[in-house]
């Protein structure tokens, strides 16, 4: 069994030196406090910017000011080149916490999430569908750029029954 925590990325270089040190120290302490092994991994995924481009094109058509229209058209060309070159990627960061008992793993996940959030990070414990999405992107990276993973339709493994 394992718990998966999703950690939202943010730009550390936008922080002051004091804030950087505080964040790094807090993350170090949170991860160093774990007694069992864990994994940190990052997945890159192409970003679908088609809807965003359509919205920009609509704004450019509606623009009254020639200067605004020109700026929007240049920006549309820039975003279009990012899309066509495959450079438009989003990074997703995860922490995998293995364990033997469900209650123990859930408790560790909540503790780690809380400790990481004190550093200013946004952390979420993944639900079943999010884990399926993650596995789909990890196992089928080429497909993941163009299609969504299957929807979760219930537990794949029977629940553990005591007694």
Provide an overview of this structure.
The protein is an alpha+beta fold. It has helices at 17-32, 50-62, 66-85, 102-117, 128-139, 141-144, and strands at 2-7, 39-46, 89-98, 123-125. Strands 2-3-1-4 form a 4-stranded antiparallel beta sheet, sandwiched between helices. The longest helix has 20 residues, at 66-85.
Short descriptors:
disordered C terminus; 6 helices; alpha+beta; 4-stranded antiparallel beta sheet; 17% strand; single chain; 4 strands; 163 residues; globular
What is shown here, in short?
With 163 residues, the protein is α+β, with helices and mostly antiparallel strands.
* Unreliable residue stretches: 158-163
Q: Tell me the major beta sheet.
A: 4 strands, antiparallel
Helix content: 40-55%
In what range is the share of β-strand residues? 15-25%
Write the layout of secondary structure elements.
Blueprint: E1 2-7, H1 17-32, E2 39-46, H2 50-62, H3 66-85, E3 89-98, H4 102-117, E4 123-125, H5 128-139, H6 141-144
Antiparallel strand pairs: 1-3, 1-4, 2-3
Helix pairs in contact: 2-3
């Amino acid at each position: 069994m394992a718990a998966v925590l999703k950690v939202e990325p943010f730009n550390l270089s936008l922080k002051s030196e004091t804030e950087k040190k505080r964040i790094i120290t807090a993350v170090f302490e949170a991860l160093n406090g774990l007694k069992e092994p864990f994994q940190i991994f990052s997945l890159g995924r192409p970003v679908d910017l088609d809807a965003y481009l359509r919205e920009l094109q609509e704004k450019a058509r509606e623009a009254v000011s020639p200067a605004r229209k020109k700026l929007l058209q240049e920006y549309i060309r820039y975003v279009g080149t990012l899309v066509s070159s495959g450079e438009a990627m989003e990074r997703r960061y995860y922490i995998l916490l293995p364990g033997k008992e469900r209650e123990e793993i859930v408790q560790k996940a909540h503790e780690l999430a809380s400790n990481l959030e004190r550093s200013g990070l946004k952390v979420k414990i993944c639900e079943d569908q999010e884990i399926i999405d993650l596995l789909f992107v990890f196992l089928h990276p080429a497909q993941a750029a163009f299609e969504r993973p299957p929807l979760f339709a219930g537990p794949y493994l029977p629940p553990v029954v005591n007694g």
